[in-house]
Amino acid sequence: MENTDCPICQQTHTKPIFDSTLLKCPECKHGWANLQLDHGFLQTLYAENYFKGEEYADYIADKEILQLNFKKRVGQIAAFHPSMHKALEIGCAYGFFYQTLQQQYPAIHYQGYDISKDAIAYANENFGPHFSDSNFLDSNEKSSFDAIFMWDVIEHLSDPADFLRKAFEVCQPGGMIYLTTGDFGALLPRLQGKKWRMIHPPTHLHYFTKKSIRQILKDAGFEPVFIKYPPVYRSLGLIYYALFILNKKPSRLHQWIYRHIPRAAAIPFNTFDIFFVGAKKIS
Q: Each residue of 153-181: pLDDT tens digit?
């Protein structure tokens, strides 16, 4: 532990929770793992295995379901962006969101960043040279983006405030940032405590509440416009994998059942602990 002050509101009287797995702020209720992780460690952490067997059963195999969720988000975003010219995605993974976004905005100018070299290689090979595995914080972006996306990524960042300040720099006045992350203040995590499915440092480092996400966005220069809790389509295979195989010694029966679940099988799921946030750059 090197810095126990709250990274959101700078409260000094924070306390360890869940057997010291995390720290929690009594003021904004933000939770975080106070770990100092360098870029090289993170690149190793988010190598190919992360998407194939560690956090995800098989990210590429779940493309159709991932894009179903992206399509629904884009439909909601279209209400704020009838037209979109330049888009930036931080944490673009294998490029599936870009393909979905392009269907709504065929002439979109897009740039994606991700720390995973394997994911970026796949994205550039399959969707064109719009993706970079360089550190977004070190980028020399000069474009003025009217939309910035961070899907399930802010919780992975050691320094989310730095990323949001950089996003502010490259966002045009009146532009929007859209993100999703877990709601640490929702009912389910309060009931489940350290058993909540999203508590797994060092991949998840930050645990936002409505109060802390609003605060970090405002401090970076963005005014929250909406916070929603839409349902998320989940792969039946991924659900089965998480319940009976991930971090376990699965029986042959569980392995057989998992292999025979159709990849396209999915159900809408809403535990109201994932929020979808839209915020506008304050001119």
A: 999 999 999 999 999 999 999 999 999 99
